[in-house]
Amino acid sequence: MGNNFENTTEQNENVNFESRLNLQPLQENVQKVKAEIGKVIVGQSKMIDQLLVAVLSNGHVLLEGVPGVAKTISAKLLAKTLSLDFSRIQFTPDLMPSDIIGTSIFDLSKSTFEFKKGPIFSNFVLIDEINRAPAKTQAALFEVMEERQITADGTTYILEKPFLVIATQNPIEQEGTYRLPEAQLDRFLFKITIDYPNLEEEIYIIQKENELQSRNKMDTIATIISQSNIIEFQELVKQILIEQNLIEYIAKIVLNTRENAFLYLGASPRASIAILNASKGFAALRGRDFVTPDDIKEAAIPVLQHRVLVTPEREMEGITSIEIIKQIVDSVEIPR
């Protein structure tokens, strides 16, 4: 009996509680990317985490903030740390769908039409001031953002993996802008709101700019993650475990947005799937191979804030979608 007890104790001491997924390479690469971006961007660690989660979850991002808070430079820095084909599109009121997707040009030598691909045929697309283009141009993004394919002249072109869109918009300026359709907003995994820096961060920004002098900010940034590794990490994130009670927790949060008296448009099942994918991304970022309620809470606001609409009465009172989502998340019982 004594020997059996000793053997059992020895076995228990040797139990290995390692993660079922090897997340170490992912974490190491993510830390290196954050260090590279941190060479230029001061503070904004939450925003950088959310951008990285979007990459890991294979989702698009809408960056919103007043001019000068580093929306475009953040996207460009992230793109430089990833070994991906990059293109930038400046949206303007006269931009046509063919300027984005591409157009068929008649080839005189072959007497046939040849499709010339537009800038959307890239792995990483930065769309600057997305709300400056009219509805017809916005609609050109619907298929490509959701299905990662483009149909032109009856031919369907599948985009190379990964395909990520980061779009920026200014919430203050109204002249020459168009409201994004709900159907398009729903295709963004996250809406990330960038605020002004605090005093200490502002001082540090000025100091860093003074030290740079004539050097280019982008020149110091190294490429960290290869295209094949990004695809590998995205597949790894999909395998992260989520328990049934946490799936029900997500469903209850989203259902509450549809039943909330302060909202006249709730979130769709696409939002539920987005929270699922994003919570797995946050878990991977923290080095865990399973989702916790905190991951879901962290995903809820950036996933839901652009997918719900506040009633006009509450909007006039100054209540925001973020405040309502926080109340909903706090009111839903956390699974034990």
Automatic annotation (TrEMBL):
<feature type="domain" description="ChlI/MoxR AAA lid">
    <location>
        <begin position="256"/>
        <end position="328"/>
    </location>
</feature>
<dbReference type="Pfam" id="PF17863">
    <property type="entry name" value="AAA_lid_2"/>
</dbReference>
<dbReference type="Pfam" id="PF07726">
    <property type="entry name" value="AAA_3"/>
</dbReference>
<dbReference type="InterPro" id="IPR041628">
    <property type="entry name" value="ChlI/MoxR_AAA_lid"/>
</dbReference>
<feature type="domain" description="ATPase AAA-3">
    <location>
        <begin position="60"/>
        <end position="190"/>
    </location>
</feature>
<dbReference type="InterPro" id="IPR011703">
    <property type="entry name" value="ATPase_AAA-3"/>
</dbReference>
<protein>
    <submittedName>
        <fullName>AAA family ATPase</fullName>
    </submittedName>
</protein>
<dbReference type="InterPro" id="IPR027417">
    <property type="entry name" value="P-loop_NTPase"/>
</dbReference>
<dbReference type="InterPro" id="IPR050764">
    <property type="entry name" value="CbbQ/NirQ/NorQ/GpvN"/>
</dbReference>
